[in-house]
């Protein structure tokens, strides 16, 4: 078996066509793993596990030549020649051939042995990588046809296939079916998403988009509101910094010098200074500028994931790259609107942090100042000053 596996790996490396991106060695190794997993679950004899091993390796070798239709027959024919060479009895070879042919869709396995290879072959329908796998299958099909298949059309075809398909073995129904049902829901979401994008693309082809004054007004007003709110927050923070600076100056210059005469006021003084310092720290944090990396990669511009409207994203870029990126954004209204949306979104995130810090500053000042004044009153009313 090890010799056979080494030979098969070598054949995949030498004969596998690059455009066959789904029915490749990775797919075959997964099938071999699954037939062994299910076979051991049913406690099949060692000979049956070996036959499943051979069937798993040979079931898709028809794709070595890029053939899609009738690849099961190709696998069965190769099984006849190479397994005879390995010295397997004719009865076992015929059983392996029958299992390979049973994987032809629609699958019609006659027994548990054939059900295992059939269920393993379509394990990807229940896999966590289902959507990625179906896109690879789409790409492979497009290479075979020599034309592009619309994503919505492909996904709807996959949906129909999953609706008509059913697993055969008890093991697959128990362990594969739940994953398949989950993937059906994911597929529905992907179909809706693809249909929306296709509709959007069709509209774009039908007519060039005109400037929408309402949208532009919305962006302008929203950005203006964000900036005004940011300015208000900065002003409030400046007020807190100024007030607390004055209070600390008075306490340090006047009160601290009197503590020797009035030691009872030590704790209230500490409370007041701590309050002012805490409020000042949070107010300063609210106004402290955040330094960003200042550069956007050409790849993020190509993927339309960058925002060149904010200086913090481009101040370290050279003029040539920045100009190129801006032209790309101007020429694509979707890219432009997405950049404006990102700009407003992150402005909002910054505002949220700023106002949270500012709220903490005001809370510390309000409660701390009240507690400090109360402590001063308590000390003044209920504690006699030390007599020297």
From TrEMBL:
Subcellular location: Cell membrane
Keyword Cytoplasm set for record: no
Residues making up the signal peptide according to the UniProt record: none
Chain ranges of the Pycsar effector protein domain: 218-378
Any GO BP: defense response to virus
Organism: Algoriphagus iocasae
CDD domains named in the record: HDc
Residues that span the membrane, as ranges: 239-259, 265-285, 364-383
Protein name (database record): Putative metal-dependent HD superfamily phosphohydrolase
Keyword annotations: Antiviral defense, Cell membrane, Hydrolase, Membrane, Nucleotide-binding, Transmembrane, Transmembrane helix
SUPFAM superfamilies linked: HD-domain/PDEase-like
GO MF terms, alphabetically ordered: hydrolase activity; nucleotide binding
UniProt-listed InterPro entries: HD/PDEase_dom (IPR003607), PycTM_dom (IPR043760)
A GO cellular component entry from the record: plasma membrane
């Amino acid at each position: 078996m090890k010799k056979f596996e080494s030979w098969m790996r070598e054949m995949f490396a030498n004969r596998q066509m690059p455009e066959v991106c789904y029915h490749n060695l990775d797919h075959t190794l997964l099938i071999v793993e699954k037939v062994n997993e299910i076979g051991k679950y049913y406690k099949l004899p060692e000979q049956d596990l070996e036959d499943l091993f051979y069937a798993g390796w040979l079931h898709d070798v028809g794709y070595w030549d890029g053939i899609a239709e009738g690849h099961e027959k190709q696998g069965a024919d190769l099984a006849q020649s190479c397994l005879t060479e390995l010295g397997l009895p004719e009865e076992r070879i015929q059983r392996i051939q029958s299992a390979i042919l049973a994987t032809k869709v629609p699958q019609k396995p006659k027994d548990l042995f054939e059900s295992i290879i059939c269920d393993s072959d379509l394990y990807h329908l229940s896999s966590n990588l289902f959507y990625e796998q179906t896109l690879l299958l789409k790409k492979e099909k497009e290479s075979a046809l020599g034309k592009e298949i619309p994503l919505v059309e492909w996904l709807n075809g996959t949906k129909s296939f999953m609706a008509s398909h059913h697993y055969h073995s008890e093991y697959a129904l128990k362990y594969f079916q739940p994953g398949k049902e989950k993937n059906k829901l994911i597929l529905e979401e992907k179909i809706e998403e693809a249909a929306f994008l296709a509709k959007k693309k069709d509209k774009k082809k039908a007519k060039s988009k005109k400037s929408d004054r309402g949208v532009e007004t919305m962006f302008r007003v929203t950005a203006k509101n964000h900036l005004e709110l940011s300015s208000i927050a900065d002003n409030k923070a400046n007020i807190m910094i100024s007030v607390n600076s004055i209070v600390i100056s008075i306490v340090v210059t006047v009160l601290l010098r009197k503590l020797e005469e009035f030691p009872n006021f030590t704790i209230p003084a500490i409370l007041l200074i701590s309050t002012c310092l805490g409020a000042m720290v949070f107010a300063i944090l609210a106004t402290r500028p955040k330094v960003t990396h200042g550069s956007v990669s050409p790849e993020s511009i190509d993927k339309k994931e960058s925002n060149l409207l904010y200086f913090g994203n481009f101040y370290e870029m050279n003029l040539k790259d920045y100009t190129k990126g801006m032209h790309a954004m101007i020429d694509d209204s979707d890219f432009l609107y997405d950049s404006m949306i990102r700009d407003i979104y992150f402005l909002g995130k910054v505002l949220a942090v700023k106002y949270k810090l500012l709220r903490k500053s005001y809370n510390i000042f309000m409660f701390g100042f009240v507690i400090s004044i109360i402590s001063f009153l308590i000390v003044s009313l209920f504690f006699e000053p030390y007599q020297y």
